[in-house]
Amino acid sequence: MIIKNGLVYNENGDFEKRDVYIDGEFITDTLPSDGEVIDAEGLYVIPGLIDVHTHGAVGHDFCDADLEGLYKIAEFEKSQGVTAFCPTSMTLSEELLTGIFATINDYKPEKKHARVLGINMEGPFISPSKKGAQNPEYIMNSDIDVFRRLNKVSGGNIRLVTLAPETEGANLFIKELANDVSISVGHSEANFKQADEAFKNGANHVTHLFNAMPAFNHRDPGIVGAAFENIGVMAELICDKVHIHPCMIRSTFRLFGEDRIILISDSMEATGMEDGTYSLGGQRVNKKGNKATLDDGTIAGSCTDLFTCFKNVVGMGIPLKSAVKMASTNPAKSIGLGDKAGVIKSGAYADLLLLDKELNIVKIL
């Protein structure tokens, strides 16, 4: 396949008019033999979006441990321009997580499904005081052996794990496993010193910046300040117009820059569904419009897909090329797959979106 005449997002983070060659499921630098041509005149050609933090959609949750449900989530994601994702777990027991993580080994996607790039393990190594919508019954201290058992069950597919660095065993966990998995600071009460130590020990990611952590304070800048000062750290942002005010989105963009922000959806099973009552990590969630809450009013994940978040940030004044980087290139890079996904270059997955000038999806590859 050849995609001709499109404005192609390039490795320099800009757009250039050129052709893209595709051979099977990969981009190539040689002329393909199949003869199929797509004329992308007047269209943007960008890497498919990558959501490294999504729990579910269309009535299904990764934590259901249901392979057919995972396929339904993946089909929805692909239909919304999210061509790859990391199904994300909740704070549950090791026994339950074992069954959930094992489903990954049997996932065999078709063209209509988004590809799974690995698992995001959000909990149970978190702080009870910043649990958010996580179930406090299953919270535990960071445990290297538990992680290794679960990673083995998953076929070595855990790409990201969240922990609270102020809790017992967290820094030992970081030092031991930082070369094996991306470690994210989140659901945490950590002060600046504690977070800074975690990042210097090898943590390189922040779980939904600003949410489930202390505020960015002028006397104790906390996790946000420590993340900013450690330049190798990348930070997730939920841009659903519920979790973070647009002013803070713009301010964070100016503070961290386009290379260090990862757009996520943090979507749950209510995404793509009508208003009503749903579940997240075994807890009841009420969806009304674009907002999902527990019975006590705590915000519980989002009801928004990543492509909508991507369009939201452009509407907030973030440059398009920066939004592409934050929704595709950076997520792949953050989980160690920057050469295979989120880029348009030879050898990378041919997961592409063709968008018109209003950012409507014209074609998904």
Shape: globular
Q: What does the main sheet amount to? A: 9 strands, parallel
Low-confidence regions = none
Oligomer: single chain
SSE string: EEEEEEEEHEHEEHEHEHEHEHEEEEHHEE
In helices, the fraction of residues equals 25-40%
Would you tell me the overall average pLDDT?
96
Assign the structural class, choosing from mainly alpha, mainly beta, alpha/beta, alpha+beta, or little secondary structure.
alpha/beta
If helices are DSSP runs of H or I spanning 4 or more residues, what is the number of helices? 9
Question: What's the structural blueprint in terms of helices and strands?
Answer:
Layout: E1 2-9, E2 15-23, E3 26-28, E4 37-39, E5 44-47, E6 49-54, E7 56-57, E8 60-61, H1 67-79, E9 82-89, H2 94-102, E10 115-116, E11 119-122, H3 144-153, E12 158-163, H4 170-177, E13 182-185, H5 192-201, E14 205-206, H6 222-229, E15 234-238, H7 246-256, E16 261-264, E17 276-280, E18 283-288, E19 291-293, H8 306-315, H9 320-334, E20 352-355, E21 361-364
Parallel strand pairs: 1-4, 1-5, 6-9, 9-10, 9-11, 11-12, 12-13, 13-14, 14-15, 15-16
Antiparallel strand pairs: 1-2, 2-3, 5-20, 7-8, 17-18, 18-19, 20-21
List descriptors.
9 helices; single chain; seven-stranded mixed β-sheet; globular; 21 strands; nine-stranded parallel β-sheet; alpha/beta; 365 residues
Task: Give a summary of the structure in a few sentences.
By secondary structure, the protein is of the alpha/beta class. It has nine helices and 21 strands.
